[in-house]
Amino acid sequence: MLRLIGVVRSCLALGGNLPASPCVAPGVINKLAERIGSWRSVHANSDSAETDSLVLECARLLAGDPGGEQAPLWTFGLAAMSEYVAWRPGDGVADAVVDALLAADRALRDRP
User: Fold this and answer.
1) Rounded distance, CA 34 to CA 86, Å?
2) 72 with 110, same domain?
3) What is the pLDDT of residue 2?
4) Could you tell me if 48 and 90 lie in one domain?
């Protein structure tokens, strides 16, 4: 997971362009870059039909394994889309996000 967090940090520092890494397969890097780009393009005025499904997918993945290795990635995704969730979410979207984040908090709270 630390390797993945390092890749995400590199992506953010480069404005969304992920560097090649000998530790992470190029296909994984490209998919991660696309996902992060999608999250970062979400804002308060985003189209709700399209954005709700993106937010709900991220919340579902976090809720499905809230203490898992990729939980920080899904949490980052929800944080990146929080402006939309705070202002224009569709029915049930904000509740799904809160439930997923609370599950992650419970699962990760006591970890060193």
Assistant:
1) 23
2) yes
3) 46
4) yes
Domain with 76 in it: 43-112
Please give the Cα distance from 27 to 35 (Å, whole number).
12
0.90 surpassed by pTM: no
Token pair 């979207």 is found at 93
Low-confidence ranges of the chain (pLDDT < 50): 1-2, 4
39-45 — which CB contacts under 8 Å span 24+ positions? 39/76, 39/77, 39/80, 39/81, 40/16, 40/80, 42/80, 42/81, 42/83, 42/84, 43/83, 43/84, 44/83, 44/84, 44/86, 44/87, 44/88, 45/88
Angle (nearest 5°) at CA 78 between 29 and 69: 55
